[in-house]
């Protein structure tokens, strides 16, 4: 019995040291806020970038237009997908914004957004390619031009198809922001790191951070399920 | 943690020259004294330039200070954030994973100053003499020791005996001459031929980005701690194996048995002592502030 009491007392003291002492819960809360802002702003940037890139790539594939832009898009995809996100983040912070005093948050958003854009581009492209060519042909034969057919017929169907993959990318992105600590941005992971460096105990800080990420991802999944269900209404 | 009040900062500033003399325990040797003279001269140079934005500790008010996560510089500076009687009023403290990252951020204008151990600061400034300088105010004198798990008092005891012997026979001074005083031709410590390791292996946890205490040169971890750790293990009949990791992971690694001891220019603090045992001190240091010229 006393063994359990000891264990309980230890848990309580670890919990106190992790969250209550020196108001450390504020570190976690602020870290959570930073993680959410970076992840969602980067996701928005990534979706916009990815959409533009996918549009350029498929337009070139199907019509032969936008040759130069397509070449640039290919280089972008190769470079971004071929190098680790952490290196991109460090280059963004220490090299590209090397000589200016700049807030770290926009730097992180830009780095993660540009990174995510490359993956989103391929997701959108696969969605556009998944629409049978007959759809485009039918639209064109009804008198729509290429741009109209793409926007009114192809893209609405493509977006519905890519939603699960897009959701996956947002989840990956959310977790990938955990490397923000490398540029001393105090995100959720860094908050756990800081608390551990003060309490010298890894259990509570890291488990707490893991649970918070898990809850965030569960919420995202719920939201995505709802969106998929909403879009599926038009299936039948 | 011991709170460093405003007053003790200023007192420390006044006796900074005396502090510099105690840079390391070998200060009695004439070689160390000569190196102190040269560093005092360079400090005088930097004070002469008036373009330097931060001249004293008080100028840190409203500024952003970079540190290495979990170091004493981090603990000290974090106490000085915000308004208050005893505080310097620092705007914020940014905790980088490596001291070098913090210095890089300073060089690229991301932050205003870096707080780090004085000998390490000296090396960073020597590497960038045109851009960096240290404030003429070293403070918070501290003692480095080896961290050993509380469950391993025998090892702490063995280290204490060996540290005393290596201090006595001049081995420690030889290593300090090589890395701190940088005496021409100082060879430091090399393992004597025929040394045997009947007791097996000891794993030393360190963070090899902390010149001159531990850093990577030609792919090997060298420095005061690496060489002194080797000397200690040789003396005790253990083979030394060095594990490089983040500084703030070292105590956790020792406590969880992933390493046998931690040696990384680690200062004895009350907070750390609650978690881990320290051996007798083998070196003393102080904190320094690096700023742009």
Question: Gist?
Answer:
By secondary structure, chain A is mainly alpha-helical. Chain A is built from nine helices and no strands.
What descriptors fit this protein?
heterodimer, A: 236 residues, MetI-like fold, B: 293 residues, D-Maltodextrin-Binding Protein, domain 2, 2 domains, six-stranded mixed sheet, five-stranded mixed sheet, disordered N terminus
Walkthrough of the structure:
The complex is a heterodimer of chains A (236) and B (293). Chain A has nine helices and no strands. Chain A is mainly alpha-helical and 236 residues long. Chain B folds into two domains: 140 residues, D-Maltodextrin-Binding Protein, domain 2, CATH 3.40.190; 143 residues, D-Maltodextrin-Binding Protein, domain 2. Chain B is 38% helix and 21% strand. In chain B, strand 1, helix 4 and strand 2 form a beta-alpha-beta unit. The longest helix of chain B is centred in the first third of the chain and has 19 residues. At the A-B interface, helix 8 of A face strand 2, helix 5, helix 10 and helix 11 of B.
Topology:
The complex is a heterodimer of chains A (236) and B (293).
Chain A lengths: L1 H19 L4 H39 L3 H16 L2 H12 L7 H26 L3 H9 L4 H31 L11 H12 L3 H30 L4
Chain B lengths: L5 H9 L1 H6 L8 H19 L15 E5 L3 H7 L13 E5 L2 H9 L5 E5 H10 L4 E3 L4 E6 L2 E2 L4 H16 L2 H11 L19 E6 L2 E2 L3 E4 L2 E3 L1 H13 L2 E6 L5 H6 L5 E2 L7 H6 L1 E2 L4 E10 L1
Parallel strand pairs in B: 1-2, 1-3, 7-11, 7-12
Antiparallel strand pairs in B: 3-14, 4-14, 5-14, 6-12, 6-13, 8-9, 9-10
What's the total count of β strands of chain B? Answer: 14
Per CATH, the architecture of the largest domain in chain B is 3-Layer(aba) Sandwich
Superfamily at the CATH H level of the largest domain in chain B?
Periplasmic binding protein-like II
What is the number of independent domains of chain A? 1
Secondary structure: number of strands of chain A: 0
Give the total of domains of chain B. 2
Number of helices of chain B: 11
Oligomeric state of shown chains: heterodimer
Tell me what portion of residues of chain A adopts beta-strand conformation.
under 5%
Largest interface, C-beta within 8 A? A-B, 22 and 25 residues
* CATH homology superfamily name of chain A: MetI-like
Weakly predicted, low-confidence segments of chain A: none
Shape of chain A: elongated
Distance between the termini of chain A: 61 Å
CATH topology of chain A: MetI-like fold
Low-confidence stretches of chain B: 1-50
Q: How would you characterize the largest beta sheet of chain A? A: none
**Residue share in β-strands of chain B:** 15-25%
């Amino acid at each position: 019995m006393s063994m359990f009491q000891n264990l309980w007392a230890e848990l309580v003291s670890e919990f106190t040291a992790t969250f209550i002492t020196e108001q450390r819960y504020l570190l976690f809360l602020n870290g959570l806020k930073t993680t959410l802002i970076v992840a969602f702003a980067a996701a928005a940037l990534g979706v916009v970038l990815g959409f533009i890139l996918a549009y350029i790539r498929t337009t070139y594939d199907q019509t032969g237009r936008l040759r130069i832009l397509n070449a640039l898009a290919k280089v972008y995809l190769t470079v971004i997908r071929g190098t680790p996100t952490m290196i991109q983040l460090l280059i963004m912070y220490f090299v590209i914004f090397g000589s200016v005093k700049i807030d770290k948050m926009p730097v992180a958003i830009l780095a993660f957004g540009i990174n995510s854009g490359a993956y989103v581009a391929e997701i959108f492209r696969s969605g556009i390619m998944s629409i049978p060519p007959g759809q485009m042909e039918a639209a064109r034969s009804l008198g729509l031009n290429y741009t109209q057919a793409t926007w009114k017929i192809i893209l609405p169907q493509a977006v519905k198809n890519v939603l699960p993959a897009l959701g996956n990318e947002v989840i990956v992105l959310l977790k990938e922001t955990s490397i923000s600590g490398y540029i001393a941005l105090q995100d959720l992971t860094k908050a756990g790191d800081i608390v551990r460096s003060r309490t010298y105990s890894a259990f509570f800080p890291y488990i707490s951070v893991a649970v918070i990420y898990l809850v965030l991802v569960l919420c995202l999944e719920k939201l995505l399920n709802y969106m998929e269900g909403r879009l599926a209404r038009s299936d039948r | 943690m011991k709170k460093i009040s405003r007053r003790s900062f200023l007192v420390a500033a006044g006796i900074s020259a005396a502090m510099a003399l105690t840079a390391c325990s070998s200060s009695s040797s004439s070689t160390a004294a000569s190196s102190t003279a040269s560093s005092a001269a360079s400090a005088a140079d930097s004070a002469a330039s008036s373009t330097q934005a931060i001249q004293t500790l008080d100028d840190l008010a409203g500024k952003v200070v970079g540190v290495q996560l979990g170091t004493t510089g981090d603990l000290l500076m974090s106490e000085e954030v915000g308004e208050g009687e005893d505080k310097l009023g620092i705007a914020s403290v940014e905790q980088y994973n490596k001291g070098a990252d913090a210095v890089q951020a300073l060089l690229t204008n991301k932050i205003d100053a870096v707080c780090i151990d004085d000998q390490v600061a000296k090396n960073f400034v020597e590497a960038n003499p045109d851009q960096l300088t240290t404030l003429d105010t070293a403070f918070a004198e501290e003692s480095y020791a080896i961290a050993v798990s509380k469950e391993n008092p025998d090892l702490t005891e063995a280290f204490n005996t060996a540290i005393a012997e290596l201090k006595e026979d001049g081995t420690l001074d030889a290593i300090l001459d090589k890395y701190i005083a940088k005496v021409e031709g100082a060879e430091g410590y090399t393992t004597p031929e025929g040394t045997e390791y009947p007791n097996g292996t000891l794993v030393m946890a360190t963070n090899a980005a902390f010149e001159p205490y531990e850093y990577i040169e030609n792919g090997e971890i060298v420095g005061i701690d690496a060489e002194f750790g080797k000397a200690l293990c040789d003396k005790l009949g253990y083979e030394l194996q060095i594990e490089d990791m983040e500084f703030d992971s070292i105590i956790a690694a020792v406590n969880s048995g992933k390493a046998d001891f931690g040696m990384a220019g680690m200062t004895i603090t009350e907070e750390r002592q609650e978690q881990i045992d320290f051996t007798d001190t083998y070196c003393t240091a102080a904190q320094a502030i690096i700023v742009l010229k």
